[in-house]
Amino acid sequence: MRVFKYRGGGESIVRRDLKSLSKNQFFSAPIESLNDPFEAKVKVHGESFEFGKFLKLLPTFKYNDNVKKAELSFIKLVIKFMEDSKSWGVYSLSQSYDDELLWAYYADSHRGFCAEYDLEDLKEYKIQTEPTINVEYQDKIPEITFLDVLSMDRSEDILQKKLLGTKSKRWKHECEIRIITGESGLYDYDYRSLKCIYFGYRSDEKFQRLTMRVLKGRGIKYYLMEPQHGSYKLEKKELDDVYANAPDYLSKLAPVDEGVPYIDETMKPFEELVRKAIEIARREPYCEKITDAYLSGTKGSKSDPVFYVTYDRSDGVPRNFFISKSVIESHG
Questions:
Q1: Which residues, other chains included, contact 25 with Cβ-Cβ below 8 Å and sequence gap of 6+?
Q2: DSSP 3-state of 178
Q3: pTM (two decimals)
Q4: pLDDT tens, 12-40?
Q5: Is the peptide bond preceding residue 261 cis, with omega within 30 degrees of 0?
Q6: Beta bridge partners of 318
Q7: 63-67, 76-80, 170-174: lowest mean pLDDT where?
Q8: CA-CA distance, 20 to 178, in Å (whole number)?
Q9: H helices present in the chain, as ranges
Q10: Pick from 99, 162, 103, 124: which is nearest to 1 by CA?
Q11: What is the DSSP string of 209-236?
Q12: Exposure string for 284-299, b = 16+ CB within 10 A, e = fewer
């Protein structure tokens, strides 16, 4: 799935954003810094609370004599959830790159840019377990109920959705998707998840060239957004990458453990292919060391077998790199 991040065009913002892009990082913002004043607003026990004020107000909440112990327990569970969520970060993305309002709001009145990511690739490196929420838009403030808390293993997902995945219908045009991180701050991503950069209609050529220079060697496509003739819509026009001939970014060869691959009777007919597979895997940008390689027993076919190469990745997570005979042969 492709998702998009709009960024501004002011000089200080450009320096910050291009620095993050050059380091393959995104910033997950604290909940309190989000621009919607109604952000993370919920109802609990019939009362409306805003995030930040919630924890201060709940201890002084006026309960009447009819409140049951179960209700008090429910409130305590919600308080704990809200306490745990204080440190969370939110990385907000859109499903649209051509919304004129988003260009006006978040890209310095079309002077900035919009970055396109592959969402699955963006999350696959270092933040695999962080939740992703499709924001829902509605007229009423969400209410946290007993059933939400009693949903056992799903309770946290439900509460996250109501707290950070629900907004007023007036924001519907943003088509927002959010990555929720355990803490706010900078997070690394696989540089290959960044697919395209769209420049605003009012962006200048100097800024465009600077962006291309900062991101050279990554195989990124570049576009300029322009008003579509005879309408209010925006359309993209592809730009030539002035650094298209730059060397590949993070080009390197990772070491291989001694004895890899292990050539037994099963592997003998495929020895040349598996060695080529290892050489291809060694060039993976985040590969630190090849630790194993063998014929896959669950993938491929007799005519087009698949091999796996296991390597230590730079984020500390071992990875299995699968590659078929046909793909290996296509590498020459």
A1: 186, 187, 188, 189
A2: strand
A3: 0.87
A4: 667 789 999 999 999 999 988 888 877 77
A5: yes
A6: 312
A7: 63-67
A8: 19
A9: 11-22, 54-57, 69-85, 100-106, 119-124, 146-149, 155-164, 205-214, 271-282, 325-330
A10: 124
A11: HHHHHHTTTS--EEEEEEEPTTSS-EEE
A12: bbbbeebebbbbeeee
